Amino acid sequence: MFGGVNRALREAKAWMTGSLLVAALVIPGVANAQDVRLPVSASFSILGDLVRAVGGDRIDLTTLVGPDQDAHVYEPTPADIGKLTATKVFFINGLGFEGWMPRLRKASHYTGRVVEVTEGLKPRTTRDQGKLVTDPHMFQDPALAKAMVTRIRDALTEADPAGKTYYAERAKNYELALDDLITWARKQLAPISPTRRVVLTSHDAFGYLGERFDIRFLAPEGVSTESEASARDVAKLIRVIRTTGVKAVFMENITNPRLIERIAHDAKVQVDGKLYSDALSQNQEASTYLQLFQHNIRAIAAAMKDDR
After folding, report:
1. From CA 54, how far away is CA 50, in angstroms rounded?
2. Which ranges form a coiled coil (predicted)?
3. Which terminal residue of the chain, N or C, has fewer Cβ atoms less than 10 Å from its own Cβ?
4. Residues 195, 180 share a domain
């Protein structure tokens, strides 16, 4: 049943628009056999979208940190705790991404299963204020997002064995969409010369994306938006921009744009727009993970072109 749908979508290059990619995830003719959907929760919007892509109509999803909200500095509310305790499976990123997780667990006394979707994956490390730290932003690499989808599929199947086939087929379909996305991204970036593959963003959220597609990302703030850029770090970054000729400069949807605007002004470069880092958006251009990734790649590729 799915082969024809997938082939038609791939032949039409479904990766070219988020709407078609989302359509590829709809499994026609499969209804939820349960009278009550499996109640699950996710820590933030991007992860919630991956869970929804696999769980479909068999789950009732609660996402704690919503679109355009910063999961690094989130503070759990009593209402959020009440929603969480009503769910049976709680999906989190892990690797310190949700710094508030210990407080939430203590306050909620959550008894359901907690699934860390990055478990078993090897994280990258980076320097943050002179210290070697783990980068939690694995979801910025679609290849690693595929591994997260597998973890989600297995956890949902364990909690709802009757949905095994349903979850497996949706997970497979989504993985095909991610494969197409990677292929498309490589084609978009192929014309960009190595010396132009440098991007400035607000915080160090795109390291995995950079490693996958050979892009160097610079940022005044570290892997968490809780860290503050020092005047020395900002001055050093401005010098790097001036000496390397960085042209691709972006704000993020979850951070205050003033720091990037100041750096761009002092370095005499223009801000090219917005990238979506740790959250989906209420804007249609990034309301799903697939759309978010497409927007970011299009924006980055356009800003790095040799003819600018």
Report:
1. 7
2. none
3. N
4. no
Banded pLDDT at 272 (limits 50, 70, 90): confident
| Domain boundary, last residue among 156, 186, 216 | 186
Summarize pLDDT for 59-104 with one digit per residue, the tens.
Answer: 999 999 999 888 888 888 898 899 999 999 999 999 999 999 988 9
Residues 6+ apart with CB under 8 A from 170: 25, 27, 53, 54, 55, 56, 153
Query: What pLDDT, on a 0 to 100 scale, did the predictor assign at position 1?
Result: 39
Question: Which pTM was predicted?
Answer: 0.83
Q: Which residues lie closer than 8 Å to 168 by C-beta, 6 or more apart?
A: 153, 157
CB under 8 Å, gap of 24 or more: what pairs does 186-192 form? Answer: 186/213, 188/297, 188/298, 188/301, 189/213, 189/214, 189/215, 189/297, 189/300, 189/301, 189/304, 191/305, 191/306, 192/301, 192/304, 192/305, 192/306
Q: Whole domain around residue 61: which residue ranges?
A: 2-186
Judgement on whether residues 128 and 205 belong to the same structural domain of the protein: no
